[in-house]
Amino acid sequence: MNPAPSASPRLLCRVVRPWHAATGGAARHLETCADCRAHVAATDALARALRCAAPAWTAAVTPAPSTGFEQRLLRAVREPAAPRRSPAARLAWMTATALTTVVAVVLIRPPAPRASRITDAEIEALTETVNAASRGLVEKVIPATGALAADNPMQREFGAIYADARSAVGFLALNFLPLPPAEATPSSARPF
Amino acid sequence: MTSAPPASPLAAGSLAEPAPAAAEEPALLRAAIAGDAGAREEIVRRHHRRVYAYLHQMTRHREDAEDLTQHTFIKALRHLDRVDPDRPVIHWLITIARNTALNHFRDGPRWSELPEETAADTASPARHAEHTDLVENLWAKARRLLPAREFEVLWLRFGEEMPIAELARTVGLTQIHIKVIIHRARHRLLKGECPP
């Protein structure tokens, strides 16, 4: 009993076929290899069958579109789409809009309250209030803050550190900095 | 090594679609690009059935397919200046339809998981019998046996007659990858084996 024809080529043919295809010898290989001939015939037949079966398959699985679908589609396509602006046009449009907004804001700004609306009595009361606040600041707040700062131990500590640092800098300057030219000893007066 | 493919059965029209005259299509497309409203409508009339059928195959839902067909043509006509008049416009439309459908279902159920609503569900007994006969159709077998990706590529190649280069651009894979997918799909169909 003969074995059923294989759907795939032999392993040897799988290796040989690409070589023959690359060198243009595929047709020659097919003439000599029955397995490959059968394989190519099977795949060609399948491709033909797929092409032939496609319309029937489409008709079988696709219901007809609803009534008036074509008219709806054509109407939708006819409606003019909003014109698309180019980036430059869009930038110009945005700039114009921004400028218009700024001009509108400037022109439509509400008028500032007029000075004549404030009465003399209100000005006097306002002045008195400011003076009272100023007096309170000078007489009460500043002395109290100064006393607080003077009694603050942290402030005393900072003062001590500052004094120590100042002494250290003075010591270093006295011993290591060069003397000013007026105080420098002339070289001729130096004893050898 | 393979023989030249025969003329597409779909080129003769599916779903009572009028046969597109391939020879005059570039001229029609150029007129549409130039802004001829009649030419634009003629493109819609010629190809809307095929786009609808493809989208129904993806969505398996009539209303969704109709809506997506409308979106597809609105998008396509808005960007007509991007199409090459010397290439079949249907492949460009199918690419737009596919992207539109994928965007539509990005946050929803995957189209391969949707329940199938076939024409036979609401059809006459004669149509139902016809559908039963077609259960043994090769494509029904392909849908049953192949993973969604392999079925899609196989359909675009042999159902829509899309060239390998165009198909690779549409699906976003290399041509080699497309050839491998087609080879595997055909192998599975020939052996009748389910994917692991």
Q: What does this entry look like structurally?
A:
The complex is a heterodimer of chains A (192) and B (196). By secondary structure, chain A is mostly helical. Chain A is built from seven helices and no strands. Chain A has helices spanning 11-22, 26-32, 34-61, 69-78, 87-107, 120-151, 153-176. In chain A, helix 1 runs antiparallel to helix 2 (26-32). The longest helix of chain A has 32 residues, at 120-151. Chain A is elongated and about 115 Å long. Chain B is an all-alpha fold and 196 residues long. Chain B has nine helices and no strands. Mean pLDDT of chain B is 77; it is low at 1-20 and 117-121. The chains are: A mainly alpha (192), B mainly alpha (196). At the A-B interface, helix 2, helix 3 and helix 4 of A face helix 2, helix 3, helix 5, helix 6 and helix 7 of B.
Write the layout of secondary structure elements.
The complex is a heterodimer of chains A (192) and B (196).
Chain A: H1 11-22, H2 26-32, H3 34-61, H4 69-78, H5 87-107, H6 120-151, H7 153-176
Helix pairs in contact in A: 1-2, 2-3
Chain B: H1 25-33, H2 37-59, H3 62-78, H4 89-104, H5 125-134, H6 138-145, H7 148-159, H8 164-171, H9 175-191
Helix pairs in contact in B: 1-2, 2-3, 2-4, 3-4, 7-9, 8-9
